[in-house]
Amino acid sequence: MGRQGQRSGASAVHHQRQYSENLLDASSNGRWLQSAGLQHLHSSNTSLPPLQEYGYCGGQGSRVHRNAPWSFNGGSEFLTEPSTPPDTSQPSSWRKNREDPESPSGFSPGLLDLHSFDTELLSETSVPRLYDSPSLCQAVPGKSTDDFEPFLANNKQTDRIRGVPDNNLLRSFVADKEKASNVAKIKVVVRKRPLNKKELAKNEEDIITIEPRSSFLTVHETKLKVDLTEYLEKHEFVFDAVLSEEVSNDEVYRETVEPIVPIIFQRTKATCFAYGQTGSGKTYTMKPLPLKASQDILRLMHHTYRTQGFQLFVSFFEIYGGKLFDLLNDRKKLCMREDGKQQVCIVGLQEYKVSDVETIKDLIEKGNATRSTGTTGANEESSRSHAILQLAIKRSAVGSESKPPRVVGKLSFIDLAGSERGADTTDNDKQTRIEGAEINKSLLALKECIRALDNDQGHIPFRGSKLTEVLRDSFVGNSRTVMISCISPNSGSCEHTLNTLRYADRVKSLSKGNNSKKDTLASTLNLRGSTTLPLSSVLPPRPTYEDDIGDSWPEQSDGEEIDGSIEFEEPEKSLSKKNGRIEAYNISNLEDKARKVNGQTKLKVPTKFDSKSTHSDDDLNALLKEEEDLVNAHRRQVEETMDIVKEEMNLLVEADQPGNPLDDYISRLNAILSQKAAGIVQLQTRLAHFQRRLKEHNVLVSSSGY
Ligand SMILES: Nc1ncnc2c1ncn2[C@@H]1O[C@H](COP(=O)(O)OP(=O)(O)OP(=O)(O)O)[C@@H](O)[C@H]1O
Fold first, then answer.
1. Model-wide pTM > 0.80
2. Domain with CATH 3.40.850.10 in the chain
3. Residue 274 Cα: closest atom of ligand 1
4. Would you list the DSSP string of 85-106?
């Protein structure tokens, strides 16, 4: 029985009801399933078992996994086993090994999923329903953008044969499009684990109550008044879904990953990850997901898309101490590079082409056995690295079958290392504490990326950590993310739990996109680099500050007369600089053009001399504007960094004892701050320089009589 019931009469001093803006109704399950075309699964009376419960039959229809075959749609191609029923009858107490039969022994250690979707691509393509019958799926296959035209043509033909009018096909196509575009960019799900033996032995209370099948969750925090009497503070939260300790891993999969599996065939990158305190159940939650997803992917590949030539590749690596190691290749050290298109490549990473679930299972187990683990105060077998398992769908272009296949979509599962506060690490050794600091840093960076992603910001701060750098291509475009926040129910974890829930809530509540426009320019000008479109490919490069620092201004063409005034074309110079600068200047170039179109910079200067002089002036104005933008961008960076540092400091402050090994880390953060501050001073000096020059030019222009 939940604590809420027991304490309903207690004074609720503080209410913290936090609503996720994506909440549409009391049952987010329905919404998500609906958005993925799986709404029929939401009903408890559904006649179809969940997808992951089908034994997968290989491409030839010859493979059967597990016993208890179940015939689907009258066909022999699908066989399944009975589903794991939701364990709703059990009391809310610790039940070791009560979970679905695959875990923990049947699957390798857990993985956190970060799934992202590309709605642009989705909107162009049909998203098949996982439960479509094979014949239906074949008749209406989803296709990637490349195949869009033939896809429609093929389906028209098929539907004619089946006697379905063409407009029905189109209608369902449009419906699928709508569903796909309705998928939220970020889905935040909370999972509560049961009390464990240790907690029960200590008579710890379960302080989390969850309304059955709802998205509401309450944390009952015990607090002390000044007179030392206890009182309860209630913190209420609402998320896209809240999963109680009764919920099985099968249900977690259905709620989180299953709806997004079909979309990765539509050139979508999806990422799913679990976040939470050490020992809160991240690994337990993530463990079965990749295998279940692989099962579904293979089913789609071998049935729905069997003629499409899709291939599935698996890779598995970890990030430990800021370095990458291949978990499927004896922990070989890997390095990460960016190619010309700013795509992150992990050089040397082994990718395995797979076509059956057993092979994937073996690979996952192998990788997990190789993973770095350690012991923390809260978890004896704590994940000390971020493990990233990627399922990539690839395909060779038509006519280029001999060439390596190209990635169509990707599903990344990330089993994050446990987040912990400094206080948890006091009984740990130096190594563990340094690991903890590194882990916290990457988790903060991850949060920043998710926020930027959901706000449609032009700049995603993926360089904040190795983790986010590696995930860069999952953050760009209209990607989608599923975050599973894992929480421990015991009173001793209350503060952690509240932190986790606030983190989750922040990720969700910042999804308003209010500041996207405002942020885009500043972000694009970010000196650290950004994921913005390569504007240099669209616009001619402009001279950089360094190139223009001399007094000789390049010759420019005469302006074109419009409405009696002279409108000058932007000079097209070919001085190229580093990406950041070129992008910055190009942005200004765009802005200048926009201003000119609005007539704001039209100057009535009839003579050649005046024209040139004014043009110089105009350039100077443009440069000045650029410098201002740079300073603003830089200032923004510093503010962001300060936010991160402040949060980090808060995390570390409790561990701040004499000789603390984390002191180094704090100094490093301070050094970053000073560096940023120095950068601002430098830019301000440059700005002042330009302002002086502008003034001189103004004097020159006015003294010439105009
Ligand atoms: N929902 C659950 N039902 C039953 N047991 C669970 C559940 N969640 C977690 N556990 C158990 O709790 C223990 C800790 O879980 P787990 O290792 O998944 O935590 P974690 O968050 O991954 O920790 P770390 O971050 O330190 O790696 C494990 O023994 C696991 O089996």
1. no
2. 92-193+248-420+429-513
3. 21
4. ----SS-SS--TT-S-TTTTTT
